[in-house]
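I hope you will forgive my troubling you with a question about protein structure. The matter concerns a single protein, recorded as an amino acid sequence and a row of backbone structure tokens. Please examine both parts with care and let me know of anything in them that strikes you as inconsistent. Thank you for your consideration; the sequence and its tokens are set out here:
***
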Amino acid sequence: MSDILPTIPSDEDRIQAAIWRAKRHVDRQALMSAGATFVPIPGVDMLVDVSVMIKMIDHINREFGLTPEQIDRLPSQKKIIAYQAISWAGTVLAGKVITAQVAISVLKSIGIKLGSKQAARWVPIVGQVSAAALGYTALRYLGREHIKDCEKIAREVILRLSLAQREKSSD
């Protein structure tokens, strides 16, 4: 972890930059997951999927200033607004530490049938390619959806801070 933690993007340019960096990271991580399908050791690809997902979600949260550590470093008012925006967005992955159990639960909820992925990989070539494509697509989808959630949260924080400042200046 670096000493300088990014904060929640405060304008459109910063939001777009965070989106771009996060999408690049998601694509690389999804490729890593797909590549693990070709390792001939049972269960390795599943372990890689879970590990990749945990790191990927943490990286996206970090890009948007939404890790627990980053939020805790915010001034009180902005911290409250950040947690309100996370609650408003209805995401379970922002502002939290992601554990292996949470990762497995989320992977299952988006339709990765870990057993069928394991079974498919044992069909020579075609099965492995299918399993790799399934892993890549699912993790990329999950990452892209989380980026959308974080973008929504960042925009909501900007809106709520703007409204709070207007209320303060009208007093």
